[in-house]
Known about the structure:
Strand order of the largest sheet: 1-2
Strand content: 5-15%
Structural class: alpha+beta
Order of helices and strands: HEEHHHHHHEEEE
Radius of gyration: 19 Å
Shape: globular
Distance between the termini: 15 Å
Largest sheet: 2 strands, antiparallel
Amino acid sequence: LPMLPRLPRPLERIASAVQHLHDMEVAHGSLKPSNILMDEAGDITLTDLSMATLRELGFVPDAPTRQHLLFMPPEREYHAAPELVGDVFSLGVLAYLLLTGKMPFDDPDPEARGIIEPHDLSVEVAAVLRRELNPQLRFRYQTLAEFMLALKPDAVEVNREGQIFETKRVLIGLDGGKLAADGAYQAIIHPAMVQS
């Protein structure tokens, strides 16, 4: 059974807020932790939205902060108008941070970043993040929907006694740790959920 991501609820809510902007063809352009507020109920508010408009008018700080550079896609010029695909890259950085507790790279210079090596993640999730954080735009997900669908698949392959089944109806219980003391089970799927 492939280990599916247990996406942090804040990531899903941030993605939903960003998608709302993208539906109106507005790029945030400055997605980073300091521009995301979460209340006690877990509701997300994106701040610094005025930067998208101010950038278009040419009113931006002279130089980006280190944090801004770490979340900015490598192909983007700081003073250029933000693009939707840039928000997807920034969300990829946030996803990596939320899933691992670490930044995917420690150098804000895109030339020095290289390919990330996600630790403590399943092969499938690591591949999604590696693709999204690739320095080459053409290899990355082009929309937020593509990226989130890759992280939250709508179908699962189940290996049961040597046979592989794919199912779209999945009820999975995942936990950050093991579901059995001996570590034998990472997920529980009811046999009735497996379609042949």
